[in-house]
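Lab notebook, bench 4. We co-purified these components, and the gel suggests they stay together. Before we commit to crystallization screens, I want a quick structural picture of the whole thing.
Request: model the full complex, all chains together.
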Amino acid sequence: MLKENTFRTLAEEAISRCRRLATFSEDAGGTRRTFLSPPMRDCHREVSSWMKSLGMNVSLDAAGNLRGLYAGASPGSSRILIGSHLDTVPNAGAFDGILGVVLAVALVKSLDDAKLPFAIEVIGFSEEEGVRFGIPFIGSRALVGRVDEELLGRKDANGISVRKAIENFGLNPNDILKAKLSDDVLGFLEFHIEQGPVLDKLGRPLGIVEAIVGQNRLEFRFSGQANHAGTTPMNLRRDALAAAAEWIVAVEALALRTPGIVATVGFAEAKPGATNVIAGEARAMLDIRHASDHARTEALDELIRQAESIGARRGVTAKWRALLSQNAVAMDPFLTEQIEHAAHKAGCEPHRMASGAGHDAMILAEKVPAAMVFLRTPEGISHDPAESVHLDDVAKALECGHHLLTQLTASQEFLGRTCRA
Amino acid sequence: MLKENTFRTLAEEAISRCRRLATFSEDAGGTRRTFLSPPMRDCHREVSSWMKSLGMNVSLDAAGNLRGLYAGASPGSSRILIGSHLDTVPNAGAFDGILGVVLAVALVKSLDDAKLPFAIEVIGFSEEEGVRFGIPFIGSRALVGRVDEELLGRKDANGISVRKAIENFGLNPNDILKAKLSDDVLGFLEFHIEQGPVLDKLGRPLGIVEAIVGQNRLEFRFSGQANHAGTTPMNLRRDALAAAAEWIVAVEALALRTPGIVATVGFAEAKPGATNVIAGEARAMLDIRHASDHARTEALDELIRQAESIGARRGVTAKWRALLSQNAVAMDPFLTEQIEHAAHKAGCEPHRMASGAGHDAMILAEKVPAAMVFLRTPEGISHDPAESVHLDDVAKALECGHHLLTQLTASQEFLGRTCRA
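Here is the predicted assembly.
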């Protein structure tokens, strides 16, 4: 067993490595590293060197995912996947995604050359944020066989397709199917910063994700009657913006009284949008999420009813269209329980929670048992250069991960699993 | 006394003349006639010919106002001004402003060459809508001596100044002071469509304006904390758009319960404005009007307090800045009473009301007793090609105006007035 200050030393190195990777950027002033952009090559070179120093076998698949295999005790060992994504949003912090890859490498390092009854494949996904092509998870989609011709044909702002971007990076898009999960995968483990304030408010270093929430996005359009703001008495108005505002308040109220729901209107617009004209039309975008698909659908139905009844009372029609509908994805209960046990051993009480954001683990869960560990995010600040982690939390995450690997080594239930891929 | 069907015939001609003037436009597809634009020359030529046929002395002042003097019984007669504006908004209807000029000419025609103890100066203001230079009332400002160097220097979208526009039309901007009201003006009378739904809902042809409402315009800015819509629990949010929405509902509620107030939020915007991001900032523009300055100021103070308290409860700061503050302008009580009397004689019960919109009469009222007659606007539709008037209402307005002139002819109170100009 390693000493506690070993995890602290590894955690220091991990944070410093995250900061180093943040310097590989498309932008001079901040971190921006999108799918197979030039700085991704520097990032790969750096991470590869760390992997190789641990005796890992490094490769780049046709979707641009960096993969490092740390062999198991015997040549035919099954494998566990550990990783996250290497791409970033514009003006990014140093830890979102990156930390999960760096911690996977650190976990291998914590083994100190010991071989386990399973291999460990560390993976740095090429694309999760959806910045370059407006569609997220290109990297993890490749592992579950969901990169199709339509996705390969999608173009970025410069008219370069996913296929062409892959070629330009020196990879062969025709090999994309070879990126698929092999049939010896026992599970996928992802460390990720929470990107929210929950753990920070609770004062807990680690969270365990039980499910990634399901989500709907809808556009609501309220149509009333544009009119003169001075000459139209209050009781003769059909004010679309007032209707939208009443509904935005109702959205918030319903979410506040319904446990586990988050519902957000982040965009609203009035037309014609002049100070002295009553709005004839108003648009508002709804984002609603819950770990339970039933609870989410029920809340959404209620919000649609409210939009219609608020509108009806005002002579304003309310129409909506669906932009996204995605069910919740459960994490693997066995792995989740094992993580909880390992966290206890590391001396901390992890908080079981839903992830309000999508992650690569959500995609991998289609094919293999997947689990996620969240690290506390100070003040919940993410997608921002101020994004940070506490050194102690990173050390706890590493210690938890190390205990987990040890536990799995001894688990016949885990080792006996067969892959659904 | 003229027969009732004379007014009907004059009203038919007036409507047909309004429709004719609507064909003089800067745009091929609709009516748009801004300050001293080329079609204004055609408009002047047309209106001048009507005036000249009635023996009126026609001139164009240096602010581009068309003025036709119908002489009084004696050479030194004082004068009454009757008119409105000849400019339009883009995609305009045929009656806003124009009808007031056309009716003034029709009133002179209704005199059938009879001379009154006062002269009548019919005026077609060059600019009321504020379209070309973003500032309204250029025509009527010239009459009260409020066209200064700053206004003359103001430029349109093509970089042409008011001064240059006047020169380009063949007028001399240095003569602008000569456009000022002479000191023999007894009062100003303006016929105008209501541009609102009040008379239409009440089923009354005519309204008498008691006051033009005072008005404030303010920008409110709510600042909270932008955050992830999925990972930020409802109770940890500082949602600027939800705060703005709650306040927009409060604005409407206060206006609904406060007699005579109209309060409108016609513009709202959330930043960053993404579906999956809680708004960190929201802007909303308030327009609030009332015929009583005290009632308006009191309501505005209450709305500012509400913005602050709604914000404070949510951890959102609310700040505001004033964009416009304008007191109410009372119409002349004597003229208003005389109009009411004249309307009764014409067989209709006019509705006493406030004007929610600004008009040239508001500017003229700074210097001379001013009064306004509103004509019912079907469905309240204005600033739109669908803008219309009822023939019967126009006939009633003419009959009312004719009776008014007859009354004033016999009024020592009116004839004994001296001008404040």
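The longest strand of chain A covers residues 214-223. Worth comparing against the SEC data before the next meeting. Chain A touches chain B through 60 residues (CB under 8 Å).
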